[in-house]
Design goal:
The complex is a heterotrimer of chains A (313), B (276) and C (411). Chain A has 15 helices and 2 strands. Chain A is mostly helical and 313 residues long. The relative contact order of chain A is 0.13. Chain B has helices at 3-31, 35-40, 53-59, 62-95, 101-112, 117-130, 136-159, 165-172, 177-206, 209-213, 223-226, 240-273. Chain B has 12 helices and no strands. Chain B is 75% helix and 0% strand. The chains are: A mainly alpha (313), B mainly alpha (276), C alpha/beta (411). Chains in contact: A-B, A-C, B-C.
């Protein structure tokens, strides 16, 4: 996150040098303006997170409060040596990688169409925003019903699929159904971010490339994509972190059956369903750390410069 | 553009429409299927016998109507508060130099990526202590907080494009920073604020994990959570038709908002991450 | 700002509690088609009013909602409908208000043997049995005629599976990864004379008995069905509702399901094609033990009106009110006296009522332990999907249950 740079403005800097009174009052005003937002952010996230950190050191089941016992890092060793934890982490990473990759391709195609289209712009933008705005739970229901053996049309429509095929009866088909719902719901977000990036690619450069005899494919790889790098990376970062937290779709579609559980769902089950506050808190902490790790990896590996992406240069 | 790309664009257009609307049409179609039809298994796309019974049932379902009210109220209040706080913060970030700015920005980013699930347990305990469990504020506060980063992000990008010379001019004329902000910037910033509001509303309307964990009655339960309370003719099987109908009903406001503000939402989504 | 929010919440709270002197008892019920709400109205007196709030549809979700709030000593829960497998957990955690001995005596005498057993923890009756559910074997008369199987004699699972498999019929069961699957597994094990766990008073240290001859008999039945032509395509996601759809389809032959299902087939009962018999036997020559389900009503130990809530139990679970509930929901009374009410007698044919009562007498509740949700969850993890069940499954599940109870494994 160190890549986020505050806007540097000449006038501000000069003012700072010139009069310290003004700087002080600006400082005060600035702090006062961000204070409410900061207070709430701390109250709702930082404090509960500290509490989770503390609870994660205990063996503590809500319905057996008398058995509460300090166990140090035992919960973490239990979790980190557990098959289910790694299975769910693997599932989550897989869902993240596959959905983001697919969305990148489909989203780019969508962005190209939206960029090129001259007629019915409003129609296409409106329809693409519907999946974005729809409630995830509703999307999950819609797709669950669509894939359902008793009430779904998918088996009828898809060739080579047996009419009695049970999508939620095995691991891979169930994962497939979950990913379809996730991809459907979030591709528009990806497409819109990419559309913004696409509009930054200069038409002159494309014209020049065309005149030089570059094929469509060459123009795509040599001109368009390199110039959209920042937009692509930001889109990937946002969507990857979002995908890693997948919960609603799994909750509605499989409830984690057929080993389709995600890291968020496992945490939810331990904390809320099993009322294992100690173990669950350890999972919460690990979940948060893994999200941070992924953010860090994406920022470092792909050299995402958020400041630059925002046009701050 | 030559003829070939036009054809490609046309095909793309049709594909996008199909992709985006098919599940919506499907759920609308389901909402017209009778309970008998879905209970017996009805894999065809369109209803055999078109019925409005599900809509009649939903509109007579008091719990669902209460949930709808809660969803609206909670999302609206969370939106207003989030936008107010985000506007203040975004202004400070875009325009003022102050200590701790980087901390605020980093914090906002960290929260934007926060796994909500990991907060549910501690929040439940906190809200019980403060008497906020199963109340509107109990959901409003976290919703507002989780949308603040996106709102701050969108707004500060927006604020940066405002011609600040006008503010400078006002300050030269003797206005304080605060007056300059209120008189000059607020009107100019209104479109950005509006965009942030729509995005916040979508988030609050959509949220599920907290809604199922921090509510216990129809006094504060929102629609996404209420969907798991539907009862069909037998207690073990959720009524597909009614679920679909409820889904259609909660999607209508989203479609209306999208129809009205399509341009702004697109601008808002793209300006937040990439200057567009 | 926080102050303003608190004010708003205060106003909302003030709006919701519009009592004028008479205390309101809030009864958290499992969702039904209006039976419990009607009973609540029936039992409201001039001393207190009973209103209902609905819990989620899924039994496990019901438990979570209640447990979390009771753990926080929430005074806004007065009465609650509790699923039998979680009764022990709530009682053991001290969430349930004590019922006076005299009332316990009345309830115990009134209820069926299995209902009273399921309501008991630590020798105390901790909830008032309200309605009782059991499963029977439903069959299509046309199918058994075709298959030539004599349903007047007790049948075993093997016989049913063979008959259906040979004659292109399907057997509808509940085998999704959820509590209903544990119900089936438990019934099969009990039917072979076994138990999932014993010595449950020891809490986490209860003895897990699933790795036994009875456990293997149960695994045999499940794997036989899963690999047979008689298994429905949606076996691994089937629940009570999908089972009904399978049963009424053209290939429908047999189904095990709860009592309410009778009402689902309309007046003509699939052209009068529905027959019923006692739950199938796990092993030949040994009486079957049908599953036990239902609802007991408990009073919260943290209620502001605890004494009134306990007092209300008597009215709520009276045979007359059990009958009112049965009439509206098809959920049958937990007592012989409830069955004797005229409107209950009219709900089902006399021989079906006879079968229900007989099944309830012999029904086996799921193991009574405060850790049932862990045990059940561990069973679901190891026995699901049904197609993976083999002779190793009981041993694996016993080990897994042990690990989960000892906190060595995540569930």
């Amino acid at each position: 996150m160190s890549t986020v740079t505050a806007p540097r403005r000449e006038d501000v800097r000069q003012a700072q040098a010139a009069e310290s009174d003004r700087t002080k009052s600006e400082n005060r005003l600035g702090l006062r303006l961000v204070a409410p937002a900061v207070v709430f952010m701390l109250l709702v996230t930082a404090w509960p997170m500290l509490q989770a950190l503390y609870l994660s050191l205990f063996r503590y089941r809500l319905t057996a409060p008398d058995d509460r016992e300090f166990v140090g890092i035992a919960n973490y060793t239990t979790v980190l040596t557990d098959r289910l934890f790694w299975l769910d982490t693997w599932n989550t990473v897989l869902i993240m990688v596959v959905t983001v990759a697919v969305e990148l391709v489909i989203g780019f195609a969508f962005a190209m169409v939206m960029h090129r289209i001259v007629f019915a712009r409003g129609v296409i933008r409106t329809s693409i925003l519907i999946p974005y705005g729809i409630i995830t739970v509703v999307s999950a229901f819609a797709w669950q019903f669509a894939f359902s053996l008793n009430n779904g049309f998918v088996n009828n429509w898809l060739p080579f699929v047996d009419e009695n095929f049970n999508w939620f009866g095995d691991h891979w088909p169930a994962m497939f159904a979950i990913m379809v719902s996730e991809i459907w719901k979030t591709t528009p977000f990806m497409a819109l971010l990419l559309l913004a990036g696409l509009s930054q690619v200069s038409e002159d450069m494309l014209e020049a490339a065309k005149v030089d005899g570059a094929t469509w494919w060459q123009r795509l790889w040599k001109v368009i994509l390199p110039n959209m790098r920042a937009a692509i990376m930001v889109a990937v970062l946002f969507r990857a972190l979002d995908a890693y937290r997948i919960f609603d779709n799994i909750f509605v579609m499989t409830k984690g059956a057929q080993e389709t559980e995600s890291a968020s769902f496992l945490t939810y089950r331990q904390v809320i369903e099993q009322v294992q506050l100690g173990l669950g808190s350890a999972l919460s902490v690990l979940l948060f750390l893994s999200v941070l790790l992924i953010a860090w990896l994406i920022v470092k590996l792909f050299k995402v410069d958020l400041a630059q992406a925002r046009g701050e240069g | 553009m030559n003829q070939k790309t036009s054809v490609g664009t046309w095909i793309g257009f049709v594909l996008i429409l199909g992709w985006c609307l098919l599940p919506v049409v499907w759920i609308i179609s389901l909402s017209f299927k009778s309970a008998e039809e879905t209970a017996a298994g009805s894999p065809q796309f369109l209803p055999k016998d078109f019925t409005l019974q599900n809509y009649a049932d939903i509109l007579a379902n008091e719990d669902f109507l209460l949930a709808l009210r809660n969803s609206f109220g909670i999302a609206a209040i969370a939106t207003v508060l989030a936008v107010i706080f985000a506007t203040l913060a975004a202004y400070a970030i875009a325009r003022l130099e102050f200590r701790g700015k980087r901390v605020v920005l980093s914090m906002a980013l960290a929260i934007a990526m926060f796994p909500v699930v990991s907060l549910v347990g501690p929040l439940f305990d906190m809200w019980r202590t403060f008497g906020l469990f199963n109340t509107w504020p109990g959901l409003i506060i976290p919703y507002m907080t989780f949308t603040l980063p996106l709102a701050i992000w969108t707004l500060s990008a927006f604020f940066r494009e405002i011609p600040w010379e006008m503010e400078q001019a006002a300050q030269v004329d003797g206005a304080t920073s605060w007056q300059a902000f209120r008189k000059v910037i607020v009107p100019l910033a209104a479109p950005g604020v509006f965009t942030a509001a729509i995005l916040t509303f979508f988030f609050a309307w959509n949220e599920f994990v907290l809604a199922i964990s921090l509510t216990s009655t129809t006094g504060s339960r929102t629609v996404p959570a209420q969907l798991s309370f539907f009862v069909g003719p037998d207690p073990f099987n959720p009524p597909y038709g009614q679920l679909a109908t409820a889904s259609v009903v909660v999607t209508v406001p989203i479609i209306v908002i999208v129809l009205l503000f399509q341009r702004r939402i697109v601008a808002g989504l793209t300006s937040g991450a990439v200057k567009g | 700002m926080a102050g303003a929010l608190l004010l708003v919440s205060g106003l909302l709270a003030a709006c919701s509690g519009d009592d004028s002197g008479t205390p309101t008892l809030i009864w958290y019920t499992n969702p039904d088609t209006g039976g419990q709400a009607a009973v609540a109205e029936e039992c409201s007196t001039d001393r207190y009013e009973i209103t209902t709030e609905v819990l989620p549809q899924d039994a496990n979700q019901q438990r979570i909602q209640l447990a979390r709030r009771l753990a926080a000593k929430d005074p806004d829960i007065d009465l609650m409908s509790i699923d039998p497998p979680f009764t022990a957990e709530f009682a053991d955690a001290g969430y349930l208000a004590e019922i006076p001995q005299q009332m316990q005596q009345t309830f115990r005498e009134q209820a069926f043997q299995s209902a009273a057993e399921a309501a008991t923890w630590d020798d105390q009756l901790v909830v008032a049995p309200f309605w009782s559910n059991t499963q029977v074997l439903w069959y299509r008369k046309s199918f058994v005629d075709k298959a030539g199987i004599d349903m007047s004699q007790p049948v075993t699972w093997q016989q049913v599976i063979e008959a259906a498999g040979k004659n292109d019929g399907r057997i509808a069961v509940q085998a999704n990864k959820y509590e209903g699957y544990s119900v089936w597994v438990n019934a099969l094990i009990e039917g072979a004379g076994g138990q999932i766990a014993t010595n449950t008073d020891a809490g986490v240290d209860a003895e897990i008995q699933i790795d036994s001859e009875a456990g293997r008999e149960a695994a045999d039945v499940i794997s036989a069905l899963a690999s047979s032509d008689a298994s429905p395509a949606d076996l691994s996601v089937s629940n009570e509702g999908t089972a009904a759809a399978t049963f009424s389809s053209d290939a429908g032959a047999f189904m095990v399901n709860w009592t309410f299902i009778w009402g689902n087939y309309g007046e003509d009962r699939l052209g009068d094609d529905i027959g019923f018999a006692r739950y199938p036997r796990t092993v030949e020559g040994e009486e079957s033990t049908p599953p036990y389900g239902g609802i007991g009503i408990g009073a919260s130990a943290f209620s502001d009106h605890r004494d009134l809530a306990v007092e209300a139990l008597e009215c709520l679970t009276s045979p007359e009110n059990q009958a009112i509930n049965a009439e509206l929901t098809g959920n049958m009374p937990s007592s012989a006296a409830g069955y004797e009410q005229p409107q209950v007698q009219k709900l089902f044919p006399a021989d079906l009522i006879q079968l229900f009562q007989e099944s309830l007498q012999d029904a086996a509740p799921r193991t009574l332990t405060p850790y049932w949700s862990d045990i059940s969850g561990a069973i679901q993890s190891t026995w699901h999907p049904p197609s993976t069940v083999d002779e190793q499954t009981p041993e694996e599940s016993a080990e897994f249950i042990r690990d989960v109870l000892d906190g060595r494994s995540l569930l």
